[in-house]
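User: Need the bound-state model for guanosine-5'-diphosphate:
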Amino acid sequence: MGGIVAIVGRPNVGKSTLFNRLIGERRAIVEDVPGVTRDRLYGEAEWFSRRFWVVDTGGLDLEAQEEIPAAIRRQVLAAVDEADLVLFVVSAQEGITPADESIAQLLRKSGKPVLLVVNKVDAPVHELYVPEFYRLGLSDPIAVSAAHGKGIAELVEAVLARLPQEDEGEVVGDDAIRVAIVGRPNVGKSSLVNAILGEERVVVTDVPGTTRDAVDIPFRTPEAEFVLVDTAGLRRPGRVGRGTEYYSTLRTLRALERAHVAVLVLDATEGIVEQDRRIAGYAWERGRAVVVAFNKWDAVERDPQLSVRYEREVRRDLYFLANPPVLYISALTGRKVSRLLEEVRAAAERFRFRIDPEELDAIFRDAVLLTPPPSVGGKRPRLYRMRQVLTGPPKFVVEVDDPSLVTSGYLGYLENRLREVHPLPGVPIRIEAERYV
Ligand code: GDP
Ligand code: GDP
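Assistant: Bound-state model below.
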């Protein structure tokens, strides 16, 4: 599902205004990067029931080459590298500048699909300036006014037409379990990919058609079929270089888009840090089942207290993961790597959990009887029934006379009651209130 759209252009053309238009009310992910003009922003856009990621690259100011740290230029190029589509933003009110020309040249060389977005077309008079942008030798210019919201729907249509459709790139049958190996740099993700593929019982299967940027690796064990998704850059342990550290978050988000199960790799020599929590949060928000793997177990002293401590830390720092399976592995020695695959398979099964409607009804009635919903502003909602509407991950709706009266705390209570019977460790459960009709 989805795809990644990078917004590129010189400063002040309106990139961040356009970014905000595209993601609307949704929350942006901000990440501090040393030496960058502004925080990098990632955001999820949803239009016409399709979702895609948008990255605001900050600025690419080729006019002031001396002052621009090479790192920033590299970052923008790395974003272009990662993107499925680039929105190159220019300004109708300022016309083509030398910086625009250099960026256009860079983008033409990159071979990426580019949409030329002429911004600041606020009034009909500005439309006169649009045709001059054909000179940049890119696609037909699309006129918008990010500030006034003009032309945005047309732009979005052009974007969606160029993004991969959902599920494209799948190379094995529907039953294959799609696995994303995620974690911050240096925890051993590449080493783990290699360890998995080197496992005796693993058979790497033929790849009928690898997708353009995404490198998916299908393989089989006697128990199940898997696909490691988006392993680009994950096959050479210890590599350093352009883009790898800059866009690791983007790479994570992209991999999560296409996975069923995320293996969150942590470094057992360092424990859980803030960045680990953040990555765990992305996986959870994206609705993926999570298996936690403390890697480099060979390197820590065989301190029996350590696994106890880590288990406690997972419950505390990663509490939202609903008691995920925790493994202590070594990509280096192969310790517990086949066990990890077994846990991934089990997690995928839970991810596709379906409850019997009668059982759900019984759990629901008991729960409501035991603790009725609290009244809000003197009014108490009437709950009618609960249904499972989706799986992978499981989603439920509670039918109620007035959904606005149902608190998130009460939905959390219903989730807890459900988990008492079906714990579904490491699997996100969604419950929403819906108007009974
Ligand atoms: P960025 O540096 O490319 O991210 O540009 P910003 O989004 O920060 O916008 C730079 C300036 O252009 C701000 O003052 C915006 O209010 C203004 N701006 C953005 N979009 C438009 C537009 O569609 N029309 C006009 N007139 N101004 C705009
Ligand atoms: P990535 O950035 O997450 O892909 O991490 P790499 O796979 O490149 O590994 C980072 C470093 O950790 C390399 O020097 C690896 O050799 C080392 N490493 C990876 N897995 C293990 C492990 O299980 N044990 C030990 N001792 N070192 C490991």
